[in-house]
């Protein structure tokens, strides 16, 4: 009886996790999320916490494969527990002799995979119904996997496109500001920034629907999404807080980007532990190039922004350092 209860509980938990992950569009199931975090941490440690590691660059695809294996293993295990609760649950098709051990594992496996082998069959009508339930669940698992992974991989492509889009503005936050300034507006960063803002909003919503894309790491720091978003956020912080009055963008020019970042922080802190880990002092901000070109006439005190601490932790947890954003030591 205990085996039957444990099997039913494991089946219910597994199905709930699959449905939550593939259909809810509100993030992955508890098992899937924690399993993904575990695999990332293992890969991160194996790569010695280096962002340019080739292993980290492949971790996202390894996690996707691991999720499928996890779902199959849990479903298979739950069916095995249920079958082992009754000695007569599975019999041979030839002489109706009850089978045990490996034969039941085999029966559970080919039932879930919907192969339909006829060597063994359910022992009675009750077990025929149970077998049908697990067979249909296996079929749904295969279908759900396809419908989940295809748009997820498209979200990974969109994530990479956003990283490339931001990188086109410059290699550092200061360069991005100087390159965007046309004498009146910061083209693309603030004025006419609808494309950039919409791309960030889409990236954020993809994170909400498919949290696993956070683990699709680009080992090329020129196009790494965490680094590029950190650079763009640093630009926003400088424009909003440090620029001289004549170079200060109008408040309405910053509004759309500010809202987009607020939405991003809301989602990313739900997916990762960066918010809770971001307890240290925020990194210093580098403004020497802007001072040289008179965008800033004097150094100003920057507010203690928790968002910068969060980005600093995200960068660290992705295997990089703040110098990868600023170009050299901040001053």
Automatic annotation (TrEMBL):
<keyword id="KW-0407">Ion channel</keyword>
<feature type="transmembrane region" description="Helical">
    <location>
        <begin position="129"/>
        <end position="150"/>
    </location>
</feature>
<keyword id="KW-0406">Ion transport</keyword>
<feature type="transmembrane region" description="Helical">
    <location>
        <begin position="59"/>
        <end position="85"/>
    </location>
</feature>
<keyword id="KW-0813">Transport</keyword>
<protein>
    <submittedName>
        <fullName>Potassium channel family protein</fullName>
    </submittedName>
</protein>
<dbReference type="GO" id="GO:0034220">
    <property type="term" value="P:monoatomic ion transmembrane transport"/>
</dbReference>
<feature type="domain" description="Potassium channel">
    <location>
        <begin position="73"/>
        <end position="153"/>
    </location>
</feature>
<keyword id="KW-1133">Transmembrane helix</keyword>
<keyword id="KW-0472">Membrane</keyword>
<dbReference type="Pfam" id="PF07885">
    <property type="entry name" value="Ion_trans_2"/>
</dbReference>
<dbReference type="InterPro" id="IPR013099">
    <property type="entry name" value="K_chnl_dom"/>
</dbReference>
<keyword id="KW-0812">Transmembrane</keyword>
């Amino acid at each position: 009886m205990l085996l039957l209860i444990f099997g039913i509980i494991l089946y219910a938990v597994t199905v709930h996790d699959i449905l939550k992950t593939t259909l809810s569009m509100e993030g992955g199931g508890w098992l899937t999320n924690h399993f993904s975090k575990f695999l990332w941490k293992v890969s991160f440690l194996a790569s010695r916490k280096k962002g340019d590691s080739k292993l980290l660059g492949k971790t996202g695809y390894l996690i996707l494969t691991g999720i499928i294996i996890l779902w199959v293993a849990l479903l298979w295990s739950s069916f095995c527990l249920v079958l082992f609760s009754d000695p007569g649950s599975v019999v041979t098709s030839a002489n109706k002799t009850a089978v045990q051990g490996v034969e039941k594992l085999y029966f559970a496996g080919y039932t879930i995979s919907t192969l339909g082998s006829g060597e063994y069959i359910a022992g009675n009508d009750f077990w025929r119904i149970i077998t049908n339930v697990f067979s249909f669940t296996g079929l749904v698992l295969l279908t759900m996997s396809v419908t989940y992974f295809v748009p997820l991989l498209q979200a990974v492509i969109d994530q990479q496109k956003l990283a490339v889009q931001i990188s086109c503005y410059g290699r550092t936050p200061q360069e991005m500001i100087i390159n965007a300034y046309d004498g009146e507006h910061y083209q693309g960063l603030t004025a006419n920034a609808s494309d950039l803002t919409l791309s960030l909003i889409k990236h954020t919503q993809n994170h909400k629907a498919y949290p696993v894309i956070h683990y699709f790491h680009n080992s090329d720091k020129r196009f790494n999404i965490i680094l590029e978003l950190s650079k763009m956020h640093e630009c926003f912080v400088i424009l909003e807080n440090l620029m001289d009055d004549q170079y200060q963008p109008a408040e309405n020019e910053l509004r759309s980007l500010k809202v987009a970042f607020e939405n991003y922080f809301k989602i990313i802190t739900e997916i990762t532990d960066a918010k809770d880990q971001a307890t240290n002092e925020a990194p210093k901000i580098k403004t020497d190039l802007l001072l040289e070109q008179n965008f800033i006439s004097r150094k100003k005190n920057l507010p203690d922004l928790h968002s910068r601490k969060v980005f600093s932790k995200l960068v660290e947890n992705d295997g990089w350092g703040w110098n990868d954003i600023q170009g050299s030591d901040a001053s």
